[in-house]
Amino acid sequence: MLLKCVLVLVSLYNFVPESYGIDSSELEAFLEFTELSYEDACQSVANAEWAFINNPSNNTLLLAWEQAQGNYSAFKKNEIALIHNLTDGETDNILLAYKLNVAKKPGDTLLNSTAWNNLVSFSGKAAILRIGANHSDGSLHDSRHDKEQLLSGAAKIEDKRSTWSTWHRQLSPLLQTFPSTLALVSEATKVNGAESVTAYWELLSGQNGGYEKIEDMWEEISALHKKLLTFVQNRLAQKYKVTLDNNGIPAYLLGSLDGYDWTSIASDVMPYANISYSLEKGLWEKNLRGISLYKSAAIMGKSVLKEMPEADFWQQSKFNQKCHTQLVKFCREGATRVSTCHQASLSNYLTAQKIVAKVLLNQMGLESMPFLNMANRYSSLDEGVAELFSILSVGPGQLKASKLIDNDTDSEHSQITSLMITALDVLPRLAYYLSVDMWRMNVINNKTFQPNELVESWWDYRKKYEGVISESVDIPTFLDDEYITSNKPYLSKFLGIILGFQLYEYLTGATEVRYDRTTRYQMQNEFIRMIQQGGADDWTRIIQRDLEIDDITTDALKSYFEPLEEFLDSNPDDIYFLSDDQELELERLEKYYKSVDVTRPPVTTTAATPLRTSAPKESKIPHAKKNATNHPSLPPVVPPSNILSEHDNIKKESDHKPYVENDTKLQGTAADSEYTDKMSTSKAVWVVAAVLVATIAICVIAIFGRRRCVKSQTPKNRRYV
């Protein structure tokens, strides 16, 4: 409806011969209408993206996604033309000035049509290879998921090297096209009016001087990263009985294809193997995978943000897809969907916490109409809240409350385990994000676009910042990264991690690891109001205004990890590995639950019944002690309703927003088909549509003349017919 109205107004404005200024109230109404137009235009892109990521091998869906992206780019350019035609962009209102800047400088979509289509096409082809649709090397492990299972499991070191190398070499066909794609960053810099690539990516991330800032930050935390790197390197050398020199850790030993999230090898490197064994086993026994895992993560949202994911999220998401988890925002009514897998792992556990945080932020921020920011900027605040959820989810108190570790576990050991999990998650990513952006800016500025030079310099940067190496420097692992193949900066993610620890300090009042259950934490109302009302503003300004965080610093992060750093400095001698029997037991658990998944009928969810509330009593395997060798028979599958006691009320809570005032329940208008754009619209709706469009046109002609008509009294929490 709004899109049709936009088209009518655009046709009228074509008759305007020259631009003229408008006052602040008119400018505010103008921008509100622009934001609503963005909301409508985003919908078709989200639908096309959702269809494509759930069936990436379908070339028809790829073409539909590319076409939707092209239309979205054209829409943004048209909006910029309207802005220049109606206003000179001068205003004393800080928020309006910010929104004008975001609308006039939307990023890469301002590229000319040919360049934009080339970028989108390359990104789509890379996505197909990255997800694994076209991979088949004749081995038993021909999907991305199976390859990563091998890399994180107990396979021989030779098999890991071969699997990792084979996967990335199959991305090599993209290498010839990649230089021209990366060079488009320079063109995007020019058309967005930025002085340099550095300034351009800082503009998109909302942080002037951001790269100089994060380089200084890295100097402050690189010593901690080095200590973690050395510890992990020594543990891997002992496990595989090999010698690893000081040059770095081979990427194929880091448990995943990308190698920048080290939680996949937590069971191999954690100092106290019994705790990691209990944790990993508990993820399977508690059925913390797929939708059950996300229901568990939703409890964190209720505790911290007084919010639960809407029923539509549970109904429309896919929890039994590929393990390349992806979140899609559908713009209207804060609707989001996730496509993820039904696999229990520590990495998936942390990912679920971060995804749920972003789902809730999207719901809660709808009131401020943040559509310009969502479309054209990268928010470190969103990333910071996601990291906050991840940090809280592995606190000793939370792990014990979730029954993932025993209540009688040694407090010092549980603290170090909690810190180590978070360190394995965040420190390698900080190093990776910095190395990726620094590498790309160096390539662009020095124009070193030859494929062999690209790959060689890539490994130089990874070694310098991450301490990660490859025995063969001709393997282009960067082609496996969606941010790299789409020319997106990592600056906001780096800053978001650092901010996450500052938010942890804000929430808990301290930076040390907490042993209380997360449900005892009470987020201050200022924080919640900030999320509800600040999504459309500059994230740096709102954290200063509402949280009194004047600057992003590493102080909270360093303080949080201080006990871990002391532990690593002490060269502890009481650490130990998983026993062979424990490793076999975990493998048996995984095979057992996977076999059950194959034989039992799939579980379906609906908005009305997101989770069953009663089930047979769980049968548990006793936790193994340090040198235990007895392993009882495997238990039956634990139904989702037995995950945590808090789930007893989740059915009631997931169908409404308990904190947001004057909120109404979602109406069934966002249930577009996942693979088509079919929509049944009654005749009455079209009559209303025609009357509304006609009314707006008459208002424009008769009252405002050449000026743009905005229905400024439209309530922000409107519902579509």
Structural class: mainly alpha
The CATH class of the largest domain turns out to be: Mainly Alpha
Radius of gyration in whole Å, from Cα?
26 Å
Remind me, CATH topology of the largest domain?
Answer: Neurolysin, domain 3
Estimate nothing, just give the exact number of structural domains.
Answer: 2
* Count of strand segments: 4
Mean pLDDT: 80
The global form is globular
Count of individual helical segments:
30
Please estimate the helix content: 55-70%
Q: Major sheet: size, sense and barrel closure? A: 2 strands, parallel
The separation of the N and C termini measures 9 Å
Describe the structure.
The protein is mostly helical. The chain folds into 2 domains: 1-104 and 681-721, no CATH class; 120-569, Neurolysin, domain 3, CATH 1.10.1370.30. 57% of the residues lie in helices and 2% in strands. A hairpin with a 6-residue loop joins strand 2 and strand 3 (336-339). Helix 6 runs antiparallel to helix 7 (157-169) and helix 20 runs antiparallel to helix 21 (451-466). The longest helix is centred in the middle third of the chain and has 36 residues, at 411-446. It is globular. Residues 1-20, 135-141, 602-691 and 697-721 have low confidence and may be disordered.
